[in-house]
Amino acid sequence: MNKKDARNLIKERRMNLSMEYIESASDKILEKLLENEDFKNAKVIMSYMDFKNEVKTDKINEYIKKTGKTLVLPKVISKEKMIAIEDKNKYIVSPFGNSEPDGEEYIGEIDVIITPGVAFDRDKNRVGFGRGYYDRFFAIHKNAKKIAIAFEKQIIEEGIETTEYDMKVDVLITEDNIIY
């Protein structure tokens, strides 16, 4: 399936999810994430702040901070660039309407990047919102493990067409499966 069709199909599917489903599935995804060895061993983890029926990340982010790991969050700073900022509990609303961290750019190694997406396939291909922020970020942070979290309803069974710029994730965790 081409990316535009995948994006449209899954955005519609995701907007029809009930809050009960989102909460329950997010908790199951958190349980699976906590068992992941890369996540357990990471010292610096990039997560995100969920928006518009994405997998809930508040419990994930709290866990990261509570266990003494460094939490960094993404911030879009231009049409083509996203940076990481260490979470210091200071946030602003972005032009997209979601919360972003406020502060200085985090310069350093990131061990794990918890990755959102609109759609995925079982080969760990990912479709975002179409601006390429994460693909460019992955290219800079080559050593970071990319762990995508998504609902089963975000999986495109027939696969997603990709380009040379699209980067697969290393692991895809849903409420029902872990795909390595």
How far do the termini sit from each other? Answer: 22 Å
What value does the Rg take, in angstroms? 15 Å
Q: What is the helix content?
A: 25-40%
The global form is globular
Which structural class is indicated by helix and strand composition? alpha/beta
* Share of β-strand residues: 15-25%
Q: Mean pLDDT across all residues, rounded?
A: 95
| Poorly predicted runs | none
Largest sheet: 7 strands, mixed
What is the tally of helical segments?
A: 5
* Oligomerization state: single chain
Number of strands: 11
Read across the widest sheet, the strand sequence of neighbours is 3-2-1-6-9-10-11
- The string of secondary-structure elements, in order, is HHHEHEEEEEEEHEEE
What this model shows, in words?
It is built from five helices and eleven strands, in the order αααβαβββββββαβββ. A seven-stranded mixed beta sheet has the order 3-2-1-6-9-10-11, sandwiched between helices. Strands 4-5 form a two-stranded antiparallel ribbon. Strands 7-8 form a two-stranded antiparallel ribbon. The mean pLDDT is 95. It starts with a helix and ends with a strand. By secondary structure, the chain is an alpha/beta fold. It is globular, with a radius of gyration of 15 Å.
How do the strands and helices of this protein lay out in sequence?
Layout (H helix, E strand, L loop, with lengths): L2 H13 L3 H17 L1 H5 L2 E3 L11 H9 L3 E7 L5 E5 L4 E3 L5 E3 L10 E4 L3 E2 L5 E2 L5 H8 L4 E5 L21 E3 L4 E2 L1
Parallel strand pairs: 1-2, 1-6, 6-9, 9-10
Antiparallel strand pairs: 2-3, 4-5, 7-8, 10-11
